[in-house]
Amino acid sequence: MAIHPTAVIDRQAELDGTVEIGPYVVIEGPVKIGPNTLVKAHAFLSGWTEIGRDCEIHPFAVVGGPPQDFHYKGERSYTKVGDRVVIREGSTVHRGSQPESTTMLGDECLLMAYSHVGHNCRLANGVKVYNLAALSGHVEIDEAAIVSGYAGVHQFTRIGRLAFIAGASRTAMDVPPFMTAFGVSTIVQYNAIGMKRSGYTAEDIDEIREAFRILYRSGQLFRKSIEQVTVMVKTRAGKQLAEFLQAESKRGYCMGSTGHRQRGGEGPAEGQ
Q: Could you tell me if 57 and 37 are in contact, meaning their C-beta atoms sit under 8 angstroms apart?
């Protein structure tokens, strides 16, 4: 184990023998760190936090800090970070707000510089949160979704698998799997490129294209479109979309805009 002499390590902390700790790192409380993880200079880790193997935590990142929630009174809550996660400079990951609750990052997530993951968020494997993007509390993001730079996501919002949130957008409603959100809670396209790169078949992509047309171009009531899509789907991707649409939504769903490009990128803030 390589620990720089200027680092401050709590006696309660449990560090694997292969962990590297850089200058002026502070580890406060019963933090657990797995094999081959690198914690760089000036990072701050605290609370009931578990970090997996082969992770990188960069300077001035804060992992496991108390939530920004005035209801929080110091009760025990958790932060769990999977394997091969990269947390870049100045990013913050706050532990759960309610007693015994957890903020979770899956394997191979990437948090770029100064991004924020609020209390009780759950990020599945491979999620990427780009520079200065902010996730409010209780946001759920499924596998391989991307939240682009400067984007803001409202609390309790769900973002589906391989969804793409455009830069500087405001997302206050659920984004179904494979969809692209732009502007203010507006779906503008489906993520065909991401699907192809992730190994989905031409049949998968064609079915999502048709589902996009039904959901966002048919002009019928959104709940009627959900019923139509649910009956129609046969592929793996289509069934993943239908499952998301049938699950409970606390925020409703982003709606579509046919004229977002003509209006310079701002779609209407419409919902279910």
A: yes
